[in-house]
Specification:
Layout (H helix, E strand, L loop, with lengths): L1 H7 L8 H4 L11 H5 L15 H9 L13 H14 L30 H6 L29
Length: about 150
């Protein structure tokens, strides 16, 4: 299910660098700033994998974005936040499977990482990230190491 969501999901496909773009598409309706800014450093995480409050918190402090300065213009930040908020797991544009990603998350919790979401931990409970089968994984946030058409 997640592989299909990452590769085909409306408002939630992933992209990173030129090599991955051959089989993973840019999110439909996403502002160009996501590709020009976010994709410079990491894959484009699907909006529906976090709630609105998480995307708001992540984009509120781009000067300290997981240890890096990812500051962008206010116009770009506003466009990125609008897209991620609208398509978040609890956003107005998210339907069907996208709404499932918020299951089990208390309203009082604002995860800043997809790997902190209860659904993510449930889906990956049996996977040994310390001795991962993909040599290029290095971290649980490297979704494309397993979830790509090239991964075995």
């Amino acid at each position: 299910m997640l592989v299909a969501l990452l590769q085909m999901g409306a408002a939630g496909t992933v992209s990173v660098g030129a090599s991955a773009q051959s089989h993973l598409n840019y999110p439909p309706g996403a502002p160009p700033a996501i590709l020009s800014e976010c994709n410079d450093c990491h894959l484009i995480y699907p909006a529906q994998m976090l709630p609105q409050r998480s995307w708001q918190a992540i984009l509120a402090d781009l000067a300290n974005h997981f240890g890096d300065d990812a500051t962008v213009s206010n116009d770009k930040r506003t466009a990125i936040l609008a897209y991620y908020s609208a398509n978040a797991t609890d956003g107005p544009s998210t339907t069907g499977r996208g709404k499932l990603f918020i299951s089990g998350l208390p309203d009082s919790v604002t995860p800043l990482r997809i790997t902190a979401m209860p659904w993510w931990n449930q889906m990956h409970a049996d996977y040994d990230f310390g001795g991962g089968k993909h040599i290029d994984m290095k971290t649980a946030s490297n979704c494309l190491a397993c979830h790509s058409s090239d991964a075995q």
